[in-house]
Amino acid sequence: xAELRFFFGTMGxxxxxxxxxxxxxxAARGLSVILTTQLDRQAxxxxxxxxxxxxxxxxxxxxxxxxxxxxAYNKGGLHxxxxxxxxxxxxxxIDQLSRVVDELDVEVYAFGLLTSFQGELFxxxxxxxxxxxxxxxxxxxxRCWCGARATHNARLVxxxxxxxxxxxxxxxxxxxxxxxxxxxTYDLRCRRHWHEGLRQRQGDQLExxxxxxxxxxxxxxxxxxxxxxxx
Length: 231
Prior knowledge:
The protein has helices spanning about 15-30, 65-75, 90-105, 125-130, 190-230; strands at about 5-10, 35, 45, 55, 55-60, 80-85, 105-110, 135, 150-155, 160, 185-190. It is of the alpha/beta class.
């Protein structure tokens, strides 16, 4: 009986590498497999940081994954779907993957991040955790700069860690961008240093607000307190 299996981990934990390996193993037996992705480093492919890659179907927000699978199933049979970057899929597309398993009896292997740069579950990830028959954390442990096990993905804009902005922003790509465009990269953090960056960021913002908004009020208050002493 087919299953919906969700494999998750931080960046650098080997998600894409394992997705490519599973796809290769299935195809090498002469079986039909669909490989899908969204917002990969290389457009139209699933690519690993180890340098391996394979052509893949691009999953835009309006793609019906059940219809895609059913079309392949009706034409010549379908044995499996391997879905990389599944955290970016819409929740309804995760429901469609569950239909691929339940109605077509086709194995589905989904790979993705657990949490976003904001430290919260991606909508697609949340739905996968709710529906998957099997949930497995990849055992390749990526590391924070301090050497501790990485648990969080950090987004950096021009080298500064940020905690707000669009959910889907690709970094570390080879796409040419205007020189004035901010540099978006991603790095790994342990929970301690992810929170440390957040506290520092919040402190900087509060200090900026104090300087801009509170200074006039504080100055007026100080003058009022000094007036009786000067009379």
